[in-house]
Amino acid sequence: MVKVGIIGTGWFSGVHAKILSNMQGVQINAICGTSQEKAEKFASSYEDVNSYGNIVEMLDSEKLDAVYVCVPPFAHGEIELELLTREIPFLVEKPLSVDLEVPTRVLSKLNEKSIITSVGYHFRYKDSVSYLKNELENSTTGMATGGWMGSMPTVPWWRNQQTSGGQFIEQTTHLVDLLRYTMGEVEEVYAAYASRALSSQYEGVTVSDVGTVTIKFSNGVIANLSNTCLLPEGDSMVGLDYYTNKGILRLGFNGLEISKKGETSSVKDIVNPYEKESEAFIHAVRTGDTSLILSDYRDAFKTHEVAVAAQVSAEKGQPVRLTK
Ligand SMILES: NC(=O)c1ccc[n+]([C@@H]2O[C@H](COP(=O)([O-])OP(=O)(O)OC[C@H]3O[C@@H](n4cnc5c(N)ncnc54)[C@H](O)[C@@H]3O)[C@@H](O)[C@H]2O)c1
């Protein structure tokens, strides 16, 4: 039996807990929140789950094989360092933090040890993305454009730049990661962000509500990712379009549309990527075989570096080169 602990009692802990509780040979043993009461409330939906208001107490009291870390961007650091000290494999939700300070410390400690990690860049596990990657390997991509256009999530930490890192780091990071997964490493980013509506509409909004980022890849591909969180709820557009010498590949939330010389076809997403992500991680914990994990901490760090570079570029009004 793989014994799992979960840190965080919010929406996404619930999504992972539901998947884990339906997996054969997996037992959720413990849940840790910012208070014992919050953890108890979360635990009451599951059988035999102990609740804690402090991670050290949880890790001292339980013998866990793996931990899921589902906390907001600002809350990372102590958790990962503690798990690494105790050599406990972990799956951590994106983004790794609000900036590079914590991930740099975590990566440095991770480099001293060989601990299994996985990061919640779940798009990589989609059927459409695996098809897309294969198609792109057999064509020459000229450029890619994409966007994460939606409304502002209601959790209070999201609207604050200090606690979320802003939309590009918090949300659009999924598209940055997909671009890296399919196009390779990034050389330079140049970003422009602005605040158009939300800061005067709601209290405490310090994140930009529109932004656009030009990205140059080492292989010569140019991409642009734009995002906004000022749309009214119900209006959204999320996707990534690749323009290649064989045609256009259009990745959306539910699948891929392909156009080749005017002939169109599509690939629908059937497998639940979150389930596949957890199966890969739990398989690695059980067997030591990490080959099914498509995003680990080291790789996710590079995606996070690009997203943070975009923030720096927007602040300085200058292009930022990524160090090799
Ligand atoms: N991969 C995806 O598709 C996806 C989807 C949604 C959310 N997420 C990510 O998951 C993370 C959490 O998002 P959410 O929607 O669950 O947020 P949420 O606000 O609903 O929940 C966050 C929880 O973390 C708890 N928390 C904060 N600091 C903590 C600490 N030090 N120790 C223990 N608990 C702590 C909070 O009390 C809260 O219960 C975010 O980084 C978000 O980007 C990923």
Automatic annotation (TrEMBL):
Sequence ranges assigned to domain GFO/IDH/MocA-like oxidoreductase in this UniProt record: 153-234
Positions of the Gfo/Idh/MocA-like oxidoreductase N-terminal domain: 2-121
InterPro entries (alphabetical): Gfo/Idh/MocA-like_OxRdtase_N, Gfo/Idh/MocA_Oxidoreductase, GFO_IDH_MocA-like_dom, NAD(P)-bd_dom_sf
Pfam family, one: GFO_IDH_MocA
PANTHER family: D-GLUCOSIDE 3-DEHYDROGENASE (PTHR43249:SF1), UDP-N-ACETYL-2-AMINO-2-DEOXY-D-GLUCURONATE OXIDASE (PTHR43249)
The protein, known as: Gfo/Idh/MocA family protein
Organism: Metabacillus endolithicus
